[in-house]
Fold this protein.
Amino acid sequence: MEAKILIVEDERDIVDLLRYNLKQENFKVDVVRNGADVLPRAVDNPPDLILLDLMLPEVDGLIVCRLLKNDPRTKKIPIVMLTAKADEQDRVTGLELGADDYITKPFSPREVILRINAVLRRLNAGNDDEDENQIETHGVVIDLNRHQVLTDTGAIDLTATEFKLITLFAKSPGRVFNRDILMDVIWEQEYYGIDRTVDTHVSRLRRKLGKLGKHIETVYGVGYRLKEEK
């Protein structure tokens, strides 16, 4: 089944470049040119992934990201940000709001395709092994088939990247994962990120997990691990 990509971008040349290359890779493409129309379009015609420019007319891209992630109808849709801003804080803010990745302009069409494929693979991670579909740790259940972390009070909403992170930690409790390993495993070979990006995802994951998040330990100067149960 062809994945559908919603391009949110107001620059016509960039839209044309993205649309052409995505269609060459057999993606379906929809386009929105201003921030105000994104949420209604995503609700009426849900995409598999959103390419979201941060500099948009009418409604800023970061506000659009927040609206999408706060709406139960669209919060599961992965978002890859497109930004020309040089300030790292804009990218970090987007990740904290729930975006799954970012691409800095100018970019190559090949990079965009690789990033999209990586995010879509992460979204589907955990559904491949029917025989080992649950992990129990520190009082919670990680359901790989349903892509959920379940507590006694209900499910915790995680992005695809956050779910991949907690699954990785839970499968090897006590093991320390350094940032290079996390980049290779979580973002795969296509990821070209920065150390702070990893820290941002882990910090956000901890907050969402509550009590379980306290068991994700920082090994200073090395990386992160999930504390083993006694």
Summary: The mean pLDDT is 84.
